[in-house]
Structures are given as structure tokens and as C-alpha cells.
Amino acid sequence: MEALVVIDVQNDFCPGGALAVAGGDEIVPIVNGLIQSFDHVVLTQDWHPAGHSSFASSHPDKQPFETIAMPYGPQTLWPDHCVKGTAGALFHPDLAWTKAELVIRKGFRKEIDSYSAFYENDHATPTGLGGYLRERGISKVTMVGLATDFCVAFSALDARRLGFDVTVRLDACRAIDFGGSLAAMTARMREAGVTLA
Ligand code: VGL
Ligand code: ZN
Questions:
Q1: 174 — phi, psi (to 5°)?
Q2: Which residues are catalytic?
């Protein structure tokens, strides 16, 4: 069985949002078409408490897009975004999300970020999505959403690591792309056996 996994199509990642991804809203009609065509749909939602450790504002003298050392490894710092319960954390208003069978929230622990839909940024703490998909007999996932070079890429790499057959539909993704992140993560996905379509 196969599922569509829609990553973080939320207001804060769309133009006008706190961590806007260029063209982030352009994918919504494409994603909606894919939602129609899949039998099983899962959504992820970046969902941070105020004062999250991935926010530059939580660290004195730090600016967004700087990197700091965290106990679990290097962490890029971001503008405050997707604070749980705020308008920025809601799905894009045109996203046709009602068909989703599961919404998985991530990044809700203050002291650790979670790009991947499967593991937090220590690459060890599971979100539960891997077990959910496996228990439902889903072995193949197609991923779309925001941002290609962060949450989509880390989700795709972890899905491969867990043995899923993984396709990323690049036409239904948009990237943050700073410091060569898009090229680097695209290469890593290809090396890991992710089908880039
Ligand atoms: C994301 C940075 C911080 C993403 C989430 O959805 O790609 N990127 N939080
Ligand atoms: Zn985030």
C-alpha cells in the first residue's frame, strides 16, 4: 500500500509567513490534485511552543540562519515560526486537507527541533510515523511540501533508512535554499535511493 505524505504546507512557510519559502503557495493546487489521487494521505504540521530552542530569538546575540551547537548536533536557527495555536501554524487555507487520515505534529519539544516526519533532530527520537505506516501495511510513500531542502529531505532520508520505497515530487515542493542546501540535500536524497520526480 501507498501513502501521500504532505509536509508542512502551513501559512508560515508561504509568502507573507514568518519563514516564507519562495513560491510555497504555488504548490497548493498540485498537492490538492495528488491528495485526490491517493487512497491514503498523511499530513505533517510543524508545531513549536513559544520560545522554542530552534528560534534565534531564544538565544542572545543570535540571528536567524546562524548555526549553533546543540547537544544533538548543529542546529540552524530560524525566525519564530509555526508557534502552536497561531494562524501561522495553520495549514494554507486552500489546502484540501479533509481527506487526511493522520496529522502528525513535530517540533513540539522545546529543547529539540524536528525536521523529519519520522525522527527528531537527534535522529533517534521517533515521532511514531514509521510505526503507524508499517502497522497499516504501507510500504511506499510519495512526499510533497515545504521545504524541499529541510523537512521534505530529512523525512525522505529517514523513510529510506526505515526501508520505505520513497518518491519526492519536486514539482510539488519548494525550497528555502540557503548555503547550497538545496543542491546538497538533493544529492543526498538521490544517493539514498529516493526517486526524484
Ligand atoms: C522547516 C525549518 C524549520 C520545514 C521547519 O518545514 O522545512 N524548516 N522548521
Ligand atoms: Zn520549524
A1: -140, 150
A2: 8, 106, 151
Distances (CA, A) of 189 to 31, 48, 121, 124: 20, 26, 17, 19
175 Cα: distance to centroid of ligand 1 (angstroms): 10
Q: Which ligand is nearest to the CA of 77?
A: 1
Are 7 and 42 in contact, with CB atoms under 8 Å apart?
A: no
Instruction: Tell me what the mean pLDDT of segment 6-29 comes to.
Output: 98
Strand partners, 69: 74
- The SS3 of residue 64 is coil
Start-to-end C-alpha separation, the chain? 19
Q: What is the pLDDT of residue 195?
A: 98
DSSP H or E run through 161: helix 153-161
The span from the CA of 73 to the CA of 121, in Å, is 8
Contact between residue 4 and residue 41 where contact means Cβ atoms under 8 Å apart: yes
C-alpha gyration radius of the chain: 15
With a pLDDT cut of 90, the percent of the chain lying above it is 100
CA of 113 to the centre of ligand 2 (A): 7
Cell 532520508 maps to which residue? Answer: 157
Backbone phi and psi for residue 10, each to the nearest 5 degrees, phi listed first: -120, 155
Tell me what the pLDDT averaged over the chain comes to: 98
